[in-house]
Specification:
Shape: elongated
Helix content: 10-25%
Oligomer: single chain
Strand content: 25-35%
Radius of gyration: 31 Å
Bound molecules: uridine-diphosphate-N-acetylglucosamine, magnesium ion
Structural class: alpha/beta
Number of strands: 35
Distance between the termini: 90 Å
Largest sheet: 14 strands, parallel
Length: 447
Amino acid sequence: MSLELSVVVLAAGMGTRMKSALPKVMHKVAGKPMVGHVIDTAAHLKAAKTMVVVGPDMPDLIKTVAPHPTFEQTDRLGTAHAVLAAKEGLKGLTGNVLVLYADSPLFTAKTLARLVAAREENDHAVAVLGFRPEDLTGYGRLVTDQNGNLTAIVEDKECNDAQRQINFCNSGVMCFKAEDMITTLEAIDNANAKGEYYLTDAVEVAQKNGQSCVAVEVDEAETLGVNSRTQLAVAEAILQNRLRETAMAEGATLVDPASVFLSADTKLGRDVIVEPNVVFGPGVTVGDNVVIKAFSHLESCVVGDGADIGPYARLRPGAEIGAGARVGNFVEIKKAVLEAGAKVNHLSYIGDARVGAKANIGAGTITCNYDGFRKQHTDIGAGAFIGSNSSLVAPVEIGDGAIVGAGSTITGKVEADALTLTRAERIEKKGWAAKFREKMRELTGKK
Ligand code: UD1
Ligand code: MG
């Protein structure tokens, strides 16, 4: 594959079977809208231009695919009609134009590159990605001659009995010779069972013009198109397995791969150990030698080398965990930096904060970062020690090496190396409890 490549992504369908207010292709798999996966694959192929055909009234979709240009297909008159909605974008292109469906997120860049290369090889007008499905219903059949050339695609509804037996089918992915594409598509009519402009008729048009076409085979597993929530779950499962395989191949241990959920952009370093039941939302980067213990949930955060996370830790967006730092059970970190070696071991909320290197945050410490109107910052110096069950009412600044006594409520500024505590005066009344119980027994008759 050496000529220029452009991509047209068909995303005009609402997907009524999803029973959703969202356009179908905005539904997420592995933390990313389906259309995003397809656009990423195009980027992987170094597409010079990626165009998206959208339906009417899909502003969120247009925003999601930006800065890629979008073209609106107002009436759904068939796949050829959909591609021609992008006619202005197709003008003057050279090389290859790949047509992809936004509801089919599983095609790999490797497979698509193979298709593009096959089209280029003999300067075919069209190259089609075919597969052999278990259930042939609804698919266009690929008719090939003795030399393996593709002579026609016959839609399921148009097949005669012999054609219906053909088990080589159109996956929907087609690659066109860019220079001829508009002329070819404009020659397609809608004289067929569905009254639609079939993109697949491009093969017949090319034949008439004395041009050749070719079919390339792909494994059925890549071809899944999502039309329902059930198929969305199937696509999710396939993608998760791929992501787990990749993570392990790159040097992470997943103790129970099936219970670890990754996002398409999750980055795990070498010798990371992920225990069972861990969820990685979008935007997570984990360094080397990190242990993420069971039942932790991470999203949009960075975990430095050698850090120790969980079990039951929650890292929310903007958490930056430094090298060798420790985040223990039932700890929530949001938009906060834990510098190297800092420890927040138990039952804490740290939000909008900096925790200096090697500081120790005692159990139950809470940064009170929100006054109902504004978020305020907490700054904890290196080597500081925050006693258990302290409330740090932001804005607050604890100097390096300072100690905060357990159970304190701290506001303002604490000097470096100072001890500070707020604690009500202790009262002790000798024998009071025993007398109280005696009196209550008399009063209630209870033993
Ligand atoms: C299409 C192919 C068929 C192939 C099958 C694979 C045609 C004529 N047929 O059939 O050979 O085996 O896919 O799944 O191309 N779309 C639009 N605008 C339209 C029509 C469709 O954007 O006017 C989009 C749909 O949202 C969908 C894709 O194009 O993502 C395919 O359309 P669909 O109606 O599912 O085509 P099939 O009948 O399944
Ligand atoms: Mg379909």
